[in-house]
Amino acid sequence: MAKCDFCGKGVSFGCKVSHSMRHSNRTWKPNIRRVKAIVDGTPKRVYACTRCLRSGKVTRAV
After folding, report:
1. How far apart (Å, rounded) are the C-alpha atoms in residues 14 and 24?
2. Percentage above 90 pLDDT, the chain
3. Which letter does DSSP use for residue 58 in this model?
4. N or C terminus of the chain: which is more exposed, having fewer CB within 10 Å?
5. β-strand 42-49 against 12-17: which pairing, if any?
6. Which helix (H) or strand (E) holds 50?
7. What residues contact residue 39 under an 8 Å CB cut-off, 6+ apart?
8. Radius of gyration of the chain from Cα atoms?
């Protein structure tokens, strides 16, 4: 679910590193919002990241 419908940004994986340099797995999730947007001329509920919302890639339906 954590995937933007417009740019495709999704979950990324890496390592959590403690102060003693021990490594454990972790994830970074994008800031996804469920918004009502105009898609192909009709209002539709889609998942969009906040960067797409802020940059104007997504046309909000009010």
Report:
1. 8
2. 95
3. S
4. C
5. unpaired
6. helix 50-55
7. 46
8. 16
CA distances from 6 to 15, 19, 33, 34, 44 (A): 27, 37, 12, 12, 13
Mean pLDDT of 1-19: 95
d(CA 48, CA 4): 5
Secondary element (H or E) of residue 26: strand 23-28
Question: Alpha-carbon distance 14 to 23, whole Å?
Answer: 10
Residues 6+ positions from 23 with CB-CB distance below 8 Å: 15, 16, 17
Rounded-to-integer distance, Cα 11 and Cα 13, Å: 7
Measure CA 39 to chain center.
Answer: 17
